[in-house]
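check this:
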Amino acid sequence: MAKRRPIRDKLLLGGLLVGVMVAALSASSFLGVYSYRRLVRALSSRAAELPLAAELDARVATLRLSHARALAGGDTADGVLAGVRATADALEAYSAELEAGELDDVPFSDRTRERDTARRIALGLSALERLVAEPTAPSATAERAVLLAAAPQLERLAVLTGELPTFLQQRLHDLAHEVRGRYRTLIVVTWTAATAAGVLLCAIGVLTYRWVFRPLRLLGHGSRRVAAGDFDYRIQLDTRDEMAELADALNDMTERFREIRDDLDRQVQFRTREVIRSEQLASVGFLAAGVAHEINNPLASIAMCAESLESRIDAMAPPESEAQVARRYLSLIQNEAFRCKGITEKLLDFSRLGEVRRQATALAALVTDVADMLRHVGRFAGRRIEIDEGQDVLVMVNPQEIKQVVLNLLVNALDSIEETGVVRVTARRSGGEGVLTFNDDGCGMTPEVLEHLFEPFFTRRKQGQGTGLGLSIVHRIVADHGGHIEAASDGPGRGATFRVALPLAQIGAVAGDPPGTGAERAA
């Protein structure tokens, strides 16, 4: 038998597949979200630098304008010094933003070039401030010489501040190449996760159909067919789980239903034949009672007349040849008349109804008595009757009538076997009945003979050797005692078995006996 796979394990597998699908989709989603978050943070951080870089560039431009005015005589060196200090403040704010916006593991987070440029600007501002603030002779020529000396520094500052936005632009340009590989990887991961989730979802659907919906559909379909009376239908499931066990249980139940139905059909057919046979027996009994009484007297008269004529033949003195013919015919008339009288007596026995006296009777002892009587009949010489000597069985019957039953069955069995054949008789207790079984190795019976065996006047003997009433009388006697008789045979030449079941005797409760005599008779 294949290894059993419980539904619990299958549900756990389905849950595991759902968990894998959810994990794949979640990982793809979180990867995309966090990548987007890093990009936004990086852009936000760098976007905060732009206003400060623009402010620094504007301060340098203002400083250059002040320097140009001072050279033109419209301003003094103090105004240039104030511009240098204002530019230094703007540079300090820009440097602080660079430090505050420094992030790890985000796109274009490297600000080395910006910090280096800011340091160079700071050095230039420091040198410019020392140059402008250095004490000189209070003369226009000396002041102009200072301003001219500061011009290269201002040009350099303008160049450096103009480079700051280009660094960010270069970073953004590099970001496009850097992020392209990442978002392609992210797209592949997302599509892979979505495809895997779709495949897992399809797998879950297929497994659910095969493990749940299909077995339930087959169980429902099979149950409806069985409910409709199709007991030959069997549910076939290959799931090897509780569903398959349920299908096997339903199949076993269906097989049991079919056995019960077939058994009930056989019992109904058997009981129907018994009812029909009983009706036939009752009809024949009523007819036989009237016919027998009406025929017995004429038969007796015919026999007496034939006997009287036979005695007067010598007085008539006919020729000897004619006398012999007359005697032969008269003898034939007497024999046939007595044979008809015997048939009418059997008909009277067959139709005789009423209460009979019953008592506890030992079956084995009764069979032994009848068998001992038949062993001395010449036509049964060489044929054996074997009686199983086991524990005897007491039944509540009329001994004389049951002897007639045993006699009929033994005679029929002995007539059906060869000269060296054997008839075996057993007496057993079965439930609340005593069962007599007659088994022979004789000529056997066909199914047609078995079907009509207990019907009145049915016989397979040669004409003139049987009336066909023996087994009908046996059946009536057994039925009157509340028992039943069954016949079976495997076919012609394979012997036959008769089984007679009679109610067991209850000690102290013998029907038809005076109170207190049942126990004495049983003892």
Notes: The CA atoms of residues 57 and 161 lie 5 Å apart. The chain has twelve helices and seven strands. Residues 140-227 form the longest helix (88 residues).
